[in-house]
Amino acid sequence: MMYGDPQQQQNQPHPQGGEFQRGPPPPQMMRQPSASSTTLNSEYHHHVAAPQNPPYDAHGENFAAKRMRKMTQRRAVDYTSTVVRYVQIRMSQRDSRDRTTLQPTPAAAIDMLPAAAYLDNPSTSFAAKFVHTSLNKNRCSINCVLWTPTGRRLITGSQSGEFTLWNGQSFNFEMILQAHDQAIRSMVWSHNDNWMVSGDDGGAIKYWQNNMNNVKVNKSAHKESVRDLSFCRTDLKFCSCSDDTTVKVWDFARCQEERSLTGHGWDVKSVDWHPTKSLLVSGGKDNLVKLWDAKTGRELCSFHGHKNTVFCVKWNQNGNWVLTAGKDQIIKLYDIRAMKELESFRGHRKDVTALSWHPFHEEYFVSGSYDGSIFHWLVGHETPQVDLPSAHDNSVWDISWHPIGYLLCR
């Protein structure tokens, strides 16, 4: 039976015997090629038109920001392997007598250990090799530098009032934050590593968490610039000094002033809290270095060794030595047990503007000068162990050691 026009089929009588009319057969299925077929007919090829080039000015506005930059090699400093190796050898070595001598060859790099492993040899921590220069987008003076407690980032405080965070291993830029309305002059971490306090030119003091979240502001802490800050060992108190001639002791939790120490006749440029005791040391524009009782606010002693402004005062980790430096280009070391000067260090040609003790070697410290030079010193040696006369083009305002003691930022 042939299938024809459907309308003609409707006019035909139904067949006898109860047979039903069958519909048209399904269309013939076309054989599809398999995915692995290599010989395809022309009808299976899908011709895709080549993409047209965009207009010549399609990205004209954004092109200037996407120019190709020259490939440069970025140095990175990774101390993880030294710490891991130090932990491993401590299980089999008693002390430094069992340690193998480090050879001055590239192959001996795998045997390097952190600074804490060479306490008997401070020369292993001389940070005299230049590694990297980091430039801020906003070109202005950097007044203070501070490593985070973990050493993974570096924080700089600038003349524009900005915090800039840099990576601690590759030294690339990570974040910038408008922290203060005026120039930042001082920053310090608490000993429990949870809080940072900063001060600015307007006399304001701010509290920061370790995620850079500002939680408290005291805009009237001082009448003039906050030059330095320091925490006590328990972190319950901290002290500040200012160009308003005062040193103030603060209750950290309440951010309230407990007492004001007035004894300097001029600007107070630096202050530092004793590592274990309730004892403060301060230096100022009146050429004096003073010791204070933080509990009573009483002045204990004054040192008259400097002939000009005292810019820096720093306690040693042993709690017995005080290091001072000033505009007379001299660094002095005092012993508070005998209340006398132990040693003077001469060599800088301009004002000594920054000091920093090494975190592990108590006899090793670094100084920075107004002419951009950096000197490395050892107590007991009159001359510098390392002299970097052109470390910076301009003044060195602050120096900070990495927490592990192998890297110096200035």
From TrEMBL:
Keywords: Repeat, WD repeat. One of its GO terms (cellular component) is mRNA cleavage and polyadenylation specificity factor complex. It comes from the Eukaryota. Residues 1-41 are annotated as: Disordered. Gene3D superfamilies: YVTN repeat-like/Quinoprotein amine dehydrogenase (2.130.10.10). InterPro entries: Beta-prop_IFT140_1st (IPR056154), Pfs2-like (IPR045245), WD40/YVTN_repeat-like_dom_sf (IPR015943), WD40_PAC1 (IPR020472), WD40_repeat_CS (IPR019775), WD40_repeat_dom_sf (IPR036322), WD40_rpt (IPR001680). Transmembrane segments: none annotated. Residues 1-16 have a biased composition (Low complexity). One of its GO terms (biological process) is mRNA 3'-end processing. It holds the Pfam family WD40. Residues 134-219 form the IFT140 first beta-propeller domain. WD repeats lie at residues 135-167, 177-209, 219-260, 261-302, 303-344, 345-377. This is IFT140 first beta-propeller domain-containing protein. It comes from Hibiscus trionum (Flower of an hour).
